[in-house]
Amino acid sequence: MKELITAIPTGLAAFTATNLDDLVILTLLFSQVNATFRRRHIVIGQYLGFCTLVIASLFGFFGGLILPSHWIGLLGLVPITIGLNRLLHPDNETSSDTEAELELSHTSIFTSFLSPQAYSVAAITIANGSDNIGIYMPLFAHSAWSELLVIISVFLLLVGVWCYVTYKLTCQNAIANLLTRYGNNFVPFVLIGLGVFIILDSAALNPIILTFTCLGLMAIIKLIQSYKFKMQSL
Asked: How many CB atoms neighbour CB 151 within 10 A?
């Protein structure tokens, strides 16, 4: 019972950390609703895309049935690395870039599928969810069957909540921009906290080694960024 109660806040934290940017995308999509692009297309497409990401992440769960738990716990380094990277190098994409991506996705995907509206939303959700798999795989691998079912149930419930909230924000762009601007500031800390929880709870690393590992990851991220900057300057 204790594990099931823990699974609920874990699912809430994991979903929020990986889907805050969807608030902007969904708000933009709902703002484009018309006679041919309906609200139901957005909701169906969002669920299709998200379920695809969850199914892809289940490989981590099945791997957890074979490998020792402390080995699987090391996968917690993935959300820590993603969180540190976002913390050290925050994303600076503008809303205009996002709008351009959405328009391009609509024009290219709409002509390629039988049901273009829903499939285009699903494609955008999948393309925007590259980090989701990296977070969900170690989380699922660390979970028992009962915890996995609770976490996925929380995820599916929150997809509906996300759609409802962004629909209500459609005519209130100022609020959506505020959530995007300041919400992204705490996403790295949620990701890092989630990774730390996975590692410590599985006893993959002790706190001292984990601290030094995080410092090493920060140094590596800095070196990679410096190398990319030098390459771009050439």
From this structure: 23
| Range list of β-strands (E), the chain | none
Instruction: Please write down the long-range contacts of 220-228, taking CB distance under 8 Å and 24 or more positions apart.
Output: 221/81, 221/84, 221/85, 221/88, 221/89, 222/88, 225/88, 225/89
Reported as a single tens digit per residue, the pLDDT across 90-104 is: 754 444 444 444 554
Rounded to whole angstroms, the Cα distance separating 164 from 171 reads 13
pLDDT at 3: 65
Distance CA 98, CA 25 (A): 7
Q: CA of 1: how far to CAs of 14, 37, 141, 143, 156, in Å?
A: 20, 44, 19, 14, 21
Per the CB < 8 A criterion, the answer to whether 42 and 30 are in contact is: yes
The pLDDT of 48-70, averaged and rounded, is 76
Residue 169's SS3 state is coil
Cα angle: 88, vertex 126, 198; to 5 degrees? 55
- The stretch 46-62 carries a mean pLDDT of 85
CA 30 – CA 139 distance, rounded (Å): 31
Tokens standing for residue 159: 């997809």
Q: How far apart are CA 209 and CA 70, in angstroms?
A: 14
- pTM across the whole model: 0.65
* Cβ–Cβ < 8 Å for 91, 20: no
| pLDDT of amino acid 67 | 59
* Domain coordinates in residue numbering, the chain: 2-233
Going by pLDDT thresholds of 50, 70 and 90, the confidence category of residue 123 is confident
